[in-house]
Structure formats: structure tokens, C-alpha cells
């Protein structure tokens, strides 16, 4: 579904990606984990079509990032892209008009699972950070796409709600879709991952099948993370 070959991206003298490689099959749920500044968001932005200048090759379903691939992707960025002065209703309307694949019924079902009850007239700015993030997750997952890209989806969400969010991600994801989740919350997210890539200084320093790590090495993904990064 996604191939990254020898991917380089610099911002001035700063190398954000430095020979990053990935080969991800359809249906996988990939955890992309690494220290601050390791290149996770930069990689997600390239896949999402938000960064167009880079060296190396990126293929999404055999195509370079373009308008066609953008339509196959639902992207939850690490920045808030919605005007906070808009109401919940206006935000939903924006999604409905912008994305043909947005399913409003599915959106409300997800909100219900997340236990979010809202007045449509409430402005986003009037809501807490965590509730705004839950709405953004629901908007992202209510699209029927082949690839979900979630950058720090759990930021600002309380520990009880986080477990519901994680279940909701898997339940909402369409069959045969693929998901990439960049997060520091390795211990919390690992139960839904099929694959994990550890990234440091813009390149992969470990690419594992999660089941193999658990069964063959007897390690959790969090322990594997600590093993790799405490020696890095
Ligand atoms: N627009 C930009 N301009 C300049 N430097 C940037 C820009 N975007 C990213 N960088 C730099 O590229 C490197 C990788 O950043 P990136 O945001 O991809 O890391 P990250 O792994 O997502 O970090 P974090 O976990 O802290 O969110 C960092 O050194 C960062 O400062």
C-alpha cells in the first residue's frame, strides 16, 4: 500500500528524513515511534501530500502523492487545521462538502461511542482541548478511505477515554484499509498494532511484526522501544 524508498527531506540545514524506508502492506496497522524530532510528522505530511519537495520515492498504491492519492487518505495532523471560531455544525458541514466519502451517520456513531454529547451550535473554541481532539478523531475516522494517517491522535485525551478511542479506531476503520499511527503513547496503542517501525534521526532503526516481537522475543512493543532507544 505504501512504499518509501531512500527518503530524504531537509529544512535548511536540518535533516528531518535521512534515508527513511518503508514497505507497508494493505490492512496493516503500523505504529511509527521515535523520540521528539525523529521525523515522524514529516513522513506523515509527505504521505498526506502536504510536503511536495523531497528526495527519494514515495508510492501510495503505486502512485506518487497527488490529488488522486489525497482522496484515498484521511489525515489527522498534529496541528489543528480547523478555524476554532467555527461551530460544530459548520465544521461537520465543511467535511461533508469537502469529502465525498464522509459518512455523517458514522461520524455521530463514533461520537456516541466516545461519549461526546454536543450542541451543534457550540463553537470549537468553547470546547476543551480533549473534546476538540475527540471531534477531530471522529471526523477523520468517519471517512471511508484506504489509508488513515493519525499523527499524535491521543494528545490531550484522558486515560479512560483513551482506551475507548483506541477501540474506536479499529472498529471505525474500514475493512482492508491501512492505518499509520505516529505516537509517543507506545504502551497504550500497542495492543492494536500489527507492525511497528522505530525511527531516529530520520531513518528506521527497527521494523518489526508485532506478533513476532511478542511471541519470539517475549517483549511488549514498549519494552522493544526501550531496548532500542536506550542503546541508541
Ligand atoms: N517546517 C519546518 N521547518 C524547519 N524544521 C522543521 C520543520 N518541520 C520539521 N522540522 C524539523 O525536522 C525534524 C523532524 O521533525 P518532525 O516534526 O518530523 O519530528 P517528530 O518525530 O514528528 O517530532 P515530535 O515527536 O516532537 O512531534 C525536527 O528537527 C524539526 O525541528
Q: Show unreliable segments.
A: none
CATH superfamily: P-loop containing nucleotide triphosphate hydrolases
Report the total helices.
Answer: 9
Mean pLDDT across the residues is 93
Order of helices and strands: EEEHEHEHHHEHEHEEHH
CATH architecture: 3-Layer(aba) Sandwich
Bound chemical compounds: adenosine-5'-triphosphate
Work out the helicity level: 25-40%
Main pleated-sheet profile = 6 strands, mixed
> Which CATH class applies here?
Alpha Beta
CATH topological fold name? Rossmann fold
Total strand segments: 9
- The N- and C-terminal alpha carbons lie at a distance of 30 Å
Structural class: alpha/beta
Strand fraction equals: 25-35%
Give the overall form: globular
Q: How would you write the strand order of the largest sheet?
A: 5-6-7-3-8-9
Organism: Thiospirochaeta perfilievii
Protein name: ABC transporter ATP-binding protein
GO molecular function: ATP binding; ATP hydrolysis activity
Domain ABC transporter: 2-226
